Amino acid sequence: MKEFLLSAAICLAVVSISAQENQSDRESQPAMKQLEFMVGEWKGTGWMMGRDGNRHHFDQTEKVEYKLDNTVILVEGLGKTDGVVTHNALAIISYNKAVQNYSFHSYLSSGLENTFTGEMKEGAFTWYMNENMRYVLRINEDGQWDEKGEMNRGGQWFQFMEMKLDRVD
Fold it and tell me: CA angle 154-132-143, nearest 5°?
């Protein structure tokens, strides 16, 4: 009988621990819901300022989906110029409860990777490559993905990139 009770207690403990490990992060889900506007498949065009001072145009797609019970967002971006891939990236966005902002983990096909800080501010998701470079993403009045890259020079922000994408899903 003692062996049965011991076995039952061990099984109950294992089941209890497993159940706790499989619970979703209910604290992060509301913060991640603020980024719901990004979720979907998007396609459009953009431009980036080149070193020559001219705008260089590209075609862009973004596939954005929730993963892990809406606790992270997976972003797959593909940019092409004249049919040639010029940008191939993957990002994972999660909520950092300790500092109350978003972590933006970026991976490029070139092997580069980094983690950046993001925040929701004035209805837009802004992520910062550093204190002098940011990307601001919002849905504009036409329902488009409207993303701008900006650089800070002398306390003033200057735009160096823009993408306008339409939802295709």
Answer: 110
Confirm if 96 and 108 have CB atoms less than 8 A apart.
Answer: no
- Strands (E) across the chain are located at 40-49, 55-67, 72-81, 84-96, 101-108, 113-121, 124-130, 133-139, 145-153, 156-167
pLDDT of residue 27: 85
Residues 6+ apart with CB under 8 A from 131: 152
Rounded distance between C-alpha atoms, residue 169 and residue 164, angstroms: 16
Q: Which residues pair with 136 in a beta bridge?
A: 126, 148
The answer to whether the CB of 94 falls within 8 A of the CB of 106 is: no
Q: Which domains does the chain have, with CATH numbers?
A: 25-167 (2.40.128.20)
**What confidence tens digit (pLDDT) does each residue in 49-79 have?**
999 999 999 999 999 999 999 999 999 999 9
* List of the chain residues with pLDDT < 50: 5-6, 8-9, 12-19
Length of the chain counted residue by residue: 169
Query: What's this model's pTM, rounded to 2 decimal places?
Result: 0.84
d(Cα 88, Cα 100) in Å, to the nearest integer?
Answer: 29
